[in-house]
User: Fold these one by one.
Assistant:
Number 1:
Amino acid sequence: MATMTSPWVRALRSVAFDVPDLAAAERFYTTVWQLDVAAREPGALYLRGSGADHHLLALHERAGTPRIRQVTLRARSAAALESIAGATPAAGGRVASRGPAGDPAGGTALTIVDADGRRYEIVHGDARRTPAAPPPRDQPVRLAHAVLNSHRVEHSRAFLEQALGFVLADRTKIMAFMNCDADHHTLALGDTDNDALNHVAFLMPTLDAVMRGGGRMKDAGYPSQWGPGRHGPGDNAFNYFIDPFGLVIEYTAEVEQIDDTHTPRGPADWQWPPGRVDQWGIAPPPGDELKRAQRAVHFAPSL
C-alpha cells in the first residue's frame, strides 16, 4: 500500500491572489470571513487565522480580473526543497525561482510551475505564530485544501506525485484527491475542461462554526452557493460561497484523518442515490453561478 504522506511536503500554508480592490478585500475578509491582518506591504495584504501559520491569504492589488498567483506549501525540511527542485524537470515542470521568500513570513522558497501553468511555492523556515488557545469559535484555523481544475487530470496528478511526493487518497468521476499528510487531501484536481481555480477551503474549529459562518455570510449578502453538506471523500462538512471578487471559498470542518491503513477508492465507490450530491442529501446540487465562478479565476501567466 502507498504511504499516505509526502516525504517532502507537510501541509498547505497559504494561497496568493491578485484582486482589484485591496480595501474592499480587507473589509470582507476581516469583518465577514473572520480573518485577521497579519502584515501589510505596499499593494499587498496578508491575512491569518487562529492557527500557527503566519498567513493564509496573500492579496495583491491589481486592476482587472482576479488571478491566482500561487499555492504555497510547507516543506518538511530544507533538504526537501532540493529534492523537489531535482524532481521537477523530470516530472515535466520547471523551477521558476529559489531563494529567500518574498513575503513577510520569510524563510527559503522554491517556486515550481507545471506544464499547464500552475505555480506552487514551497517554503521552509517561514515564521510561525503561537496559535490562539482556545481558538476563537468562528475564526478559520488554517487552510484545509485547495482544489485546482485540470483539463488533463492524470497528467496533473502525475506531476504532484513525482515533483511533490503527493499520493492519491481517492478518485471520483470529477475529482482526484491528493494527500501529503494526515488530512485526507491537501490538494485536489477537478476533472474538467479548464485549468482554473475551483476553490480554497478554510478549516473551521467546529461544525457549528461552519453553520454560523453560513449565517454570517447570508446576513452580509453572500448566500451559500452549495451546502451545508458533508462530502464523501474526506468526510468533511462543507459550505461554499463566492467572495466579492468571484473567488470560490469554502468553510469546512471535521476533515477525515488518514494513515497507511487508508485504501484509496475509485469512482464506482462514490455513488450517491438519485437526487443526492453528498452524504446528508439536504443541499441541492451546485448551481450555475458557482459553476461559472469555478472556471473564471486562472493562474497569472507570470509574476
Number 2:
Amino acid sequence: MVREVVKYGSQILRQPCAPVTRIDPAIKTLVRDLFDSMKAAEGVGLAAPQLGVLRRVVVVDVSRQHPELLPISLINPRILSAEGREVGEEGCLSFPDLYGPVPRHSQVRIEALDINGKLFTVDAEGFYARALQHELDHLDGKLFIDYLSPLKRQLVRGKLKALKKEGERWDQEHPQP
C-alpha cells in the first residue's frame, strides 16, 4: 500500500528507531509498504521513519541506475566496514526538490536480516553505497541536510522553512504515544 512520506519538520525523522525483535506480519507489511511508497514517489530508498514507523527497516532499489542490482530490504542493518570518501549530490523523499552535496564512504559492507529473518551481508560501492548509507542514517535520526555546509543550508533556508510546516502538520495529525 502506498503511504504518505513524512516531510522534514516532523519530529519522528529525528528519533532513533527501535530494533526489530520479531519479523511478524506487521514487519512484512511495512516492508511491502516501504517498497510501494518508494516506487510511487520514484525514489531509490526509503526508511521506516519516513512512513512514521520507528523501527530499523529500510528498502533500497537502485536497479534503474544499476540493472544488475536487485531491490533489497534490510532489517536491523548495521555497517560492518566502510572505506574511501567521496562527495555526491543527494536528495531525499522527505525533502522534495531539495538536493545538496554530501560526503559518504565510497564502499561499505552492511549486515542485516532479510524478510525471512536470515542474516546476510551486502557489499556496496559508489551510488549503491551512498543510497544504503543515506537510508541507514534515517534509522538514527540523521538527515542528509545535516551534512550540508553552512552556506548551502543558508541558500535552502526558505525551502526548509516551508517543508518544516508540512512536517509539523504531519505530527499534529499523527500524535506519537
